C-alpha cells in the first residue's frame, strides 16, 4: 500500500479512459487481517487502484490514524478533489463524539451498486461525494451499532446530521439540496441565495408533509416508501437534530453526545438510551422531542400574535396552534437584518411572551434560521412602527422557490398551447404553491389564441379540508377552462387515503359536477363519481378504476301533432339523462428493467340512452365529453362523418383501440388491450380485441407502439386489423393514413409528478 501511494503521489495525469487491468504476477501471497471490536468484515481488491495515504491526529488522545483512498481512474478528478474529506470526517466525528478507536480508515471506489455507498467497520465502498457520510458510519453503525432495520433514524439520520455539520466546516451550504442550490446562479434564479441552508433543504421533506404523504422518521425501515426513506430518515432527522442542537446550545449538545458515545460504544443502543443520556446530561426533559416530534407527522405552527414596546423593552407574544407546542427561536433584528437578541420559547406552552432588552429593534422574527419544521411562515415576522406590521411584499418568482418569512411569492411560468380553432396560444401560468402545498392552492393560466383572437386558458382552485384517520387529504375544488369550441366549469370533492407503508393501496374517490357548453353538443350537466385503486411495487402493479357519469341535457325531438283539420310535424323539448358506467382494470409486470408487459380490460355500459343520443362509447377512444384530454383538432371529431377515427389523435379511453376502427355503442362495449415491450428496441407490440352490443363480432387491431416522454406521447403503427378492408393495408398510403397518436399531458404535469414521486 505504501509503495502504491508513492506511485500515485507521483502521477500527474489520471486518464478516465485508462481502465485496463495490468498483468498479474505469477506468485501468490496470503494476507491476514485482525481487528477486535468489529461486527462485520469486507475486503476489496483491484489492480487498477490509485492509492492516497494521509494521517489524522485525533483531537483528544492525539493518536495518529492512517487514512486511505483507493480509486480507479474512472472518477479520479472527483476523488482527488475530495481527498481531504476522509480526514475531515475522522477528525470532526472524533471531536464532536469521541475519538476514532481504530488505527486506519479506508474509502474505496468499487463496482458495488449500493446507492451512494455501503459501510463496513474501518472501510467503506463509496462514491466520492459520499465519503464523509460513509466514513461517518464508523460511528453510527460500527461503534454505536444500533438496529438499523428497526431504527434507521438512529443510524442514517444522526449520521447525516454529522455529515452536513462536517461539510459545513468548509461550506455552510452542505445539506441535501443546499449543497447544489445556494448562493450560486441557481440560488439567485430561484430567489434563495440570501436564505440560510435549512430554508433550502427543508422543502425536500416538507413537500411530502404538506400533502399528507410523510411518515414518522421513527418507523422501521421496511415501512418507508422509497422517497420518504431519503427525505425523512436522512434529511428530516438531520434537520431535527440541528434544531435540537440550536435549542440546547451547541456546547451542551456536544457534551451530551460525548457522554452517549462514551457510555454506549460497542453496546447496541436503542432510542430510549439516547434520550436518557441527553436528558441526564443536559438536565432538560426531552419527551417533547423524542415522544412527540420524532414519531409524529403532525405539522407544528407558531406565529407572532402581537409585538409591543414599552418601558425600554419589546414584548412579543408567540402563539402555537395545532397538536404540538414546540420550542421556537424568537429573534429581534435591526433595520439592516442584524440579529440583536434571541430567545427560545418553552416546550408545551401555547402562548408565551418573550421580552427583548435590545435597542434599535426594527422587527421581530420567529425561527430566523428556518429550523422549526413548520409550513406556514407568512406570520413569522412583525415589523415595528408599520401600519400593516405583518404584511409582506409580494414577489413574482419564476418557476419555483421556497416559502420565506420576509415576502409572499406568486410563481409564474410561461405557457404555450395549440389547437386548430384557436391556433397558437401564448400566456403564463400563475400559481401560489409547488414544492409545498398550502391550505388554498391555485393555478391560473390565461392565454391568447392568435387565430381565434380571444382569451383562452384554465383556472384550477383547490381548498384542503381537515382530514383525519383513514383520510390523508380532502380537497374541495373548482376548475374552469375555455378552449376551441367549448368551455367548462367543474366543482369537485376529492378524497385520498393515508399511505402507511409501501404496500398500502393508493385510493382516490372523486365526486364532481361538470357543466359543459360545446358548439357540437347540447349544453349538459354531468354529475360524476370516480373511484381508483392503485397498487404497485418495483416490478409490477395493478390499477382499478370505476366511473359513473350521468349526462343531463335537453334536446328537441320531432313529434306529429294532430288537430281537427290537419296533422303536422313539430318538435318538443325533451329532457334526457343517460348514465354511463365504465370499469377499467390494468395490470403491468416488468420482465426486465424498463421493459414491461401490460394488460388492460375495459367494460362500459350506457343506461337510459336513446337511439339518436349524442353520447356513446368509442372502441377507438372516447369522445372526451368532459374535456379531460387536450385535442389538437377536436372540432373534426364531431364535424366529420367518421367521428372518433376522423382524426389521428386518441385518448385511449373506452375501448382503447389504437387502430382507427370506427365503432361506437350506445348500449355496451367490452375490450382487452395487450402491450408487450420489445427487447432492445424502443417499440412495443400491441393487440386490441373488442366487442360492441350492436354487432355480433369480435373486432381486433394489432401493430407497433412507440412511447416517449414518460409515455406522455405514444405513436401507433397499425399492421393489421378491422380498420383495413382486407385486414392488412393495401398500400403504404393505406398504412400511413391509419397511423395514430395519443397525448397525455397529465404524465408531464409537474404538480402531479411531484405528488406521484412521494
UniProtKB/TrEMBL annotation:
Superkingdom of this protein's organism: Bacteria
Coiled-coil region list: none
Residue stretches making up the Peptidase M1 membrane alanine aminopeptidase domain: 130-291
Database matches in InterPro entries: Peptidase_M1_dom, Peptidase_M4/M1_CTD_sf
Protein name: Peptidase M1 membrane alanine aminopeptidase domain-containing protein
Species this chain originates from: Rufibacter sediminis
Lineage, highest ranks first: Bacteria, Pseudomonadati, Bacteroidota, Cytophagia, Cytophagales
